Amino acid sequence: MITENNGVFHIQTASYSYLFKINAYGIPEHLHFGTPVQTEDAEALSCRPGLGWGCSILLNGEDTASCLDTLMLEWSGSGRGDYRESPLELAGQPSDFRYESYEILKGNAAMACSLPQAHGAEETLVITLAQKNAKLQLYYSAYPTAIVRRSVLTNTGEAPMTLNKLMSFSLDIPGNFTMATFNGSWIAEMRRTDTVVGASKVVNESLTGSSSNRHNPGFLLFEPDATETAGRVYGFNLVYSGNHYASAQRSHQGLTRVMQGINMSNFCRELKSGESFETPEAVLCCSNAGFGGLSKNMHTFVNDHIVPVAWAHRPRPVLYNSWEGCVFDFNEHRLLDLAGRAKDLGCELFVLDDGWFGARNNDKAGLGDYTVNKKKLPHGMEGLAKRIRDKGLDFGLWFEPESVNVDSDLYRAHPDWALTDEFAPVFGRNQLLLDLTKQEVRDYLVKSICPILDSAKISYVKWDMNRHSIALGSKAHDFILGLYEVLDRIFTPRPGILLESCSSGGNRFDLGIMCFSPQVWTSDDTDPVERLTIQQGASYLYPQSTMGAHVSAAPHAQTLRTTPLATRGNVAFFGCLGYELDLKHLLPVEVKEIKTQITFYKQYREVFQYGTFSRNALGWQVSDGKNTLAGVFHGLVHAAPSYEQLRLTGLKKDARYRIASLTQTIRVGQFGNLLKHVAPVNIDPNGQLLRIADRHFTLPYGEEVMTVSGAALMNGILLRPLFRGTGYDQNQRTHGDFGSDIYIVEETVENRQE
Ligand code: GLA
């Protein structure tokens, strides 16, 4: 609900209040963003400056309350007394916007440009501010667990004006905060970095042309005492896939100014009389229930209001992807063989990755030419897709539409379609970007991709993008607007297609792309130990339903690490599960284990993909209120390990629960010559007999089944001991390095009947 009372605006839902007032000078003063409060609290929540501000500037020399520098503001100009960072820069001009009017609209307010927007807002408040030559509109859309802000600047004067900076929002909040950002690089995304916000500005930004794997646009501000379950945490994110900027800085008065928007480095846009510039939407969330509470609010918002309506809360298929298993080396026969095996394992969707078109036999050629390679696929894409569907699998296809190889028919025909600057071309993964700011390029993409999707009845698309951009400032922004137009033209008329965005993995993991792409390939790194960091980083702001998570081969391509198949599955369960390895070389024990994994995942798929997610000292937990699933993950084994206490959250303290471990087994071959301690006969550790046994037999371990109260589970229960070097004991959790466990916690039947 949004109300206005004597100049006090109150946006309130069950989970938050957002309050601001228009002060005596027509300046919107921020009052509160946090747990629900009353409109009547406005006075108590406002800044009440005292006397004497030394050299400070006052709007009215008689009134110390007119010193903008000391107030919490909804928006700030430049050169008028507020010397903190301004969210707006009009080339070399001061700005001083004052309140004019407001409007409360039902639902969302649609944008004029192709930027994507969240959907399903309850109401939108539009505050109009004005100064002599311009109008500034601040939009506030209310969603149950988040508020979405954006701004629009219009030149109302006669002369053109030059815009150098316009943020989506600016906010001043009282308190001491640390900023958590999610940084990294290719195959090492989403590493959480905490920086105390003090007198010097803390900046989170991307300049690569994408939202980037270096600095994800999503970030948190949290108070020093915040934990997973308690304390004040704010979350911010941008509905945008290009260069972004956010800053936080604490003033001497103890107010933290935070703002976010398009990165304005090299940005310069001329607005002629009557022209406007719209910023992307920014999402603001808060919680007094710690990181877990913040994640829950953000996840709910993304699942309900960001991903396309047709895919909201829709179970995601278990897929098989050809990339890590085949790379470029396949033909129809090999793909059909893999599809048969994938189906047998329980997969539901077969995805043909890179290499199916033009001269694309390596990453040096063919990009841009989406004509099927008939040598590899003699029955064309329609023929292959039909044969795969006949096996009972859906069919998906990879594209990398925004790029081109110089060695391609497209580049030979249209060299001018490549994005260039005045210098010699610079390549990333042997490719150039296409200039999506050109209408003819966007038309070409739509015209070359849609017929393939329609004729082969494609039900899933992996949309890749594998290089950084050379576009600067407003050109970089126009590229992203071009991309959104193309995505809209291709996928809005085809809502049944599941789009998975990919950009060398998590290089474009953002809310802008998620408005089209319900799931995103989280990282090219599928090593489960690395994935623990990557998926955990992403989990603060993005729900599991958005994270593509695959089981791949061991040793792993990027780390050379060997990990148990169980752990590869257990980590990928907490996302949208897929398999990406050569299925032909699986051992019988592995086939059996993968079948069990997929059956288990399907049974609890909705809890894994949509359940409430939280982090604890041993790993992760998801819960739909009825079923709770906990993952416990280990690194290197230590001798004489301590007990482990599993502590869950969100259960009913008086209810009784059955906790059971997911049955796991260890390959007999892993024991090597230790087998002599337990086997009745002496087996050669390097002999044929053990090799054969290892292919077919595994030993179960560590089974846990107990009935226990919610209170005890939330207090923490001690798990079965870890392997202690005394030979095989079924009661110990005998994992070896990088082992893991999954526990299924359900209310007991008696309990449910009560
Ligand atoms: C990128 C993607 C991979 C794969 C390859 C294909 O690296 O992230 O998943 O699709 O391209 O070339």
Summarize the structure in short.
With 754 residues, the chain is of the alpha+beta class. Helices cover 21% and strands 30% of the residues. The radius of gyration is 28 Å and the shape is globular.
**What's the overall geometry?**
globular
Binned, the helix content reads 10-25%
Q: How many helix segments? A: 17
Number of strands: 40
Cα radius of gyration in angstroms: 28 Å
- Please state the average pLDDT score: 96
Instruction: Kindly report how far apart the N and C termini lie.
Output: 37 Å
Largest sheet: 10 strands, antiparallel
**Poorly predicted runs of 5 or more residues:** none
Structural class: alpha+beta
What is the strand content?
25-35%
Bound molecules: alpha-D-galactopyranose
Attribute tags:
single chain; 754 residues; alpha+beta; ten-stranded antiparallel β-sheet; eight-stranded parallel β-barrel; 17 helices; 30% strand; globular; binds alpha-D-galactopyranose
